[in-house]
Amino acid sequence: MIAFLISSLFLLLLGLAALAVYLLRGVSKYDGPPAGSADGRVSVHVLVLGDIGRSPRMTYHALSIAKHGGKVNLIGYLESAPHPDVANNPNIAISPLPTPPRKPSFVPFILFAPVKVTYQIYHLTRVLASGLEPAQWLLVQNPPSIPTLAIASLICRLRNIKLIIDWHNYGWTILAGTHGKHHPLVALSKLYECCLGRLGDQHLTVTHAMARQLRNAPYRITQPMLAVHDRPAAIFQPLASPSARAGILDRVLPGPEKALVPHLVDGTMRLVVSSTSWTPDEDFALLLDALVQYAASPAAVPLLAVITGKGPQRDRYLAQIAALTGAGRLPNVRIATAFLPFADYAALLACADLGVCLHMSSSGVDLPMKVVDMFGAGLPVAAYAAYESFGELIKEGENGRGFERDQELAGILRRLLGDEGRGELERLRMGAVREGRRRWDEEWDGTVGVLLGLVS
């Protein structure tokens, strides 16, 4: 099997090299602002090989560059609506990539992967090599690392563009979570990411723990590196007026749950929100088990749990929710799912009593953006805690509570949502508000803004 993979990879690389040579013929280079240009603005291509609308950090990069007068091309898939400020910003142009084909259920991953990667390589190379004028910088999100790092580093060397790699996580650890750490493709992905990750001119990381890790084996990155924590955007704000809560909930809750608004407002029912991408790196069964245990307590306050987001495992868990509800195992607990526009999601967080984060870091050194947003909305969290960088964002007993097992989460829900826990929940809420006061602009201006020459 390994010999087959290596030989297939070699043939694929030969074919892709030929494709790259064809696409890169006569490619132009970045040589400063165009002759006669009056503004000499910083120009940046911001690339995410994913859905732009569900890539908040890269969206915030683009908005910050544009805010300081830079020119941005935001490159990625348009599977959902981008942030409204992106669509209306004259300094930002969106360069959409065609969405790759989806894997048919009967085709093995090992056969489909080369097809998908080839498709991505062609369209990514075409856009970066000839679809856009060369920029001063190319800022790319990692992961996905395949084929992003290879194409980005090649284009940057040929077009005299400086490459910034923004490390959100590691592609090979995510792959290991779905295919097992001993899968041959995981080993190849790790080798690829460690080698090509060294080709960036500058590196950004989401935590200090990740920056430390990237300096050591097996990555051994020596180029300049900045830790840039995710911070909430301005749209995430604590609820300014408690009297507005009823109207907001009536607007943002799914249809059948609107009837519960009076109970949520008067406190006879509590509201919990969890945002998920419905992928294997978030064990949603842990939350379901905790809710079953919570509901089994006679003293449990009635609860509405709203789960936002979309992803591949959604239908599977919806079936489990329906089965638990039908079997009577969730008395006094309602579970609703929704995929909300950005503004409505921010408003929902501000109206909730508690946020729940199931993010299980595959690398151990990334942080969940959803918790950042919750803090921006003044919402305390209960979050899965078994990874190294947890404490860089969530302070136990100050702005949230950590758990590792469903029994622990059930206990947190019973304590914080009950009458006896109101004082503790309020202290955590105030801690969330304090943590959320440091905003993205403040974090970005002093790091990336200085790097790009947009902030002195």
Automatic annotation (TrEMBL):
Its main location: endoplasmic reticulum. It is an enzyme of class 2 (transferase). One of its GO terms (molecular function) is chitobiosyldiphosphodolichol beta-mannosyltransferase activity. InterPro entries: ALG1-like. This is Chitobiosyldiphosphodolichol beta-mannosyltransferase. One of its GO terms (cellular component) is endoplasmic reticulum membrane. Residues 1-20 form the signal peptide. Keywords: Endoplasmic reticulum, Glycosyltransferase, Membrane, Signal, Transferase, Transmembrane, Transmembrane helix. Pathway: Protein modification; protein glycosylation. Participates in the formation of the lipid-linked precursor oligosaccharide for N-glycosylation. Involved in assembling the dolichol-pyrophosphate-GlcNAc(2)-Man(5) intermediate on the cytoplasmic surface of the ER. It is found in: Endoplasmic reticulum membrane. It comes from Trichocladium antarcticum. Pfam families: Glyco_trans_1_4 (PF13692). Its EC number is 2.4.1.142. It is a single-pass membrane protein.
